[in-house]
Amino acid sequence: MNIVDITVVGLEEPSWIPRVEQFCLKILEQLQLDNWELSIVFCTNQFIRELNNRFREKNEVTDVLSFSQSEGEPFPISPHQSKTIGDVVISLDMVEANRQDTGEPWETELKRLLIHGILHLAGYDHEESDEEREMMDLQDRLLQDFMEERIRT
Fold first, then answer.
1. In what side-by-side order are the strands of the sheet with 64-68?
2. Which of 117, 50, 119, 62 is nearest to 87 (CA)?
């Protein structure tokens, strides 16, 4: 059983948070990932800039950051115990900015960033061109598969 914990930093908690949890659980199921404990943090540009500067030494705003808790040596856990995988941090300010740049609906952009962050925690990367193609293709397929899922009404 997967667990998704959602936190909001620097913003009023949106009413659609429970639907984000359900969306993330469906993505994990589609990726056949089980016993994951995943944290989603929604924040402002200021907060994500601070994280990006502190942990990546990039003093700039970004839309999504993923912080894995499973890097290095695996630790033994019971098969029925959830494994804390990591955190996906998303700037809701950037969701809006990206939406304005791409012309995509706000909800589509949010889903894209959620999927992108989860894929990073699942081990996908886009440092090399072949890795990037694989990750982006999977991201696009998942986004298409879950296009009808409603997060914000």
1. 3-8, 36-43, 83-91, 64-68
2. 117
List of domains in the chain: 3-145 (3.40.390.30)
pLDDT for 50-107, tens place per residue?
999 999 999 999 999 999 986 544 444 555 656 788 999 999 999 999 999 999 999 9
- pTM of structure: 0.91
Q: Are strands 83-91 and 64-68 parallel, antiparallel or unpaired?
A: antiparallel
